[in-house]
Amino acid sequence: MGDTDGATVKTCRVHDVILEFIVSKAVEDNFVTIWNRNGFSDNYSSNKIRRLSIQEDISGQAEEMTKTIKNAAHIRSISIFGNNNSVLGKHASEFLSSQVLRVLNIRGGGVGEFYLGHVKRISQMKYCRLSGRTQELPEDIEKLQHLGTLDIIDTGIRKLPASIIQLQRLVRLRVDWKGQLPDGIGNLQALEELSTIDLGFQSVKFIQGLGDLINLKVLEILWRTVTVVRDVEGHKKACISSLTKLFTRLRQLSVRECPLATFPLMSLCVSTPPPLQRLFLFNWNKSSVVPHQISSLLNLTRLYIGLSGEVSKEGINILASLPILVSLTVRLSNDKEGDSGVFHPRHAINSQGFQCLVKFTFRCWSEAVLEFEPGAMPKLQMLKLQPLPARCQFKYGDGGLVLGLQNLVGLRHVALTINCDAATANEVDSLEDDITGAAGVHHNRPIVQVERWYQGSMAHGCSRRPSGYPTLEAP
């Protein structure tokens, strides 16, 4: 079973028997040596380890640890998964003694403090991903001249060494959003991906250099009105200047907490449509307004936009006008605390626009009603409704919160999350029955997955059910 974004498979799960076969073949061909609580895999030979995968807690296996460390010079790849491997942190320098090491991949929060140590011993490394309580990177990290990927987003590292700008082959750099990067980022001319940086923590000189990254294709930023710099106006101008330059090159842009008047996308008027294909606007201005300039992004295939309050018909039309949009996520949050008591009109999707849309995610944290008119979203296959407030099920008349599922002629899959907060059992059951009933008479008989979700006290008669979509906040 896979999870798809439009036509792209993002995850895939294989049958346990197939997984066992894949692992056995990998072991048989010495593609990987596995080390878990049962010891080493059958192909273990101290002088043949090339790719080592540590999958569970092995802290009690001191003898095997000693053997492995003594023969670490042969290891080209080290991957560590799971928790409670704090002993590995203590022996990091021994593990990193291989001069042929190319890949270091540490996943899991229990590795403890892991330090790269003397980088000259691992100067051939191309990929480095760390997680856990890594405190800092070595000051002489510039010796890793073959490094193409550096991912320290889950380490808590707050400041990167100045020498990092000398990594001429660095293509992907992922850091903690609170991290401060050194000036001279423009020297990293090979850089194609940079995430996630809070512009408010960066110097004006760094921001200016950002605009010189001519090969940058993926950028994820936070841009809040609060900044630690003294020259706020100069900082703002530098941000606008650099982001305007980058906007003509980027393929993917993610922005969180962007101030209304300064985001360059909203002021650009370009004669040629920008190459941007994916755009994520989180917590967009705490506004219900869909920026009209989005309609100029003719190459956009995926859009996530977070709004507050009621979306106008004009806003829906702007989104519908994007000619090749494949995946759309709209997140609606409360514009005020509590219920306003104002009747909200239905968000009506008609036959105009959304001609290529395959996946539509509607994340509703406020009162909203959705209606699909005949001919709407003709290619839509996946519909995610997360989490619809069941307390509003009877507030807007017959049909409940979603109308017209039968008009989505290409529908194959519906993922429904019901928000049970402040709802009665009758409201919850009615909402679920409406969706499953409409799917049941649909000519495609789409698969329906339902989860009942609550934040506070569970409503009477409301129970949780297994679901493949438990996470509500990921784009």
From TrEMBL:
Residue ranges of the TM segments: none
Cross-referenced SUPFAM superfamilies: L domain-like (SSF52058)
Cited Gene3D superfamilies: Ribonuclease Inhibitor
Keyword Repeat: yes
Keywords recorded for this protein, A-Z: Repeat
Superkingdom: Eukaryota
Residues in Disease resistance R13L4/SHOC-2-like LRR domain copies: 74-447
The protein's name: Disease resistance R13L4/SHOC-2-like LRR domain-containing protein
Organism in which the protein naturally occurs: Panicum virgatum
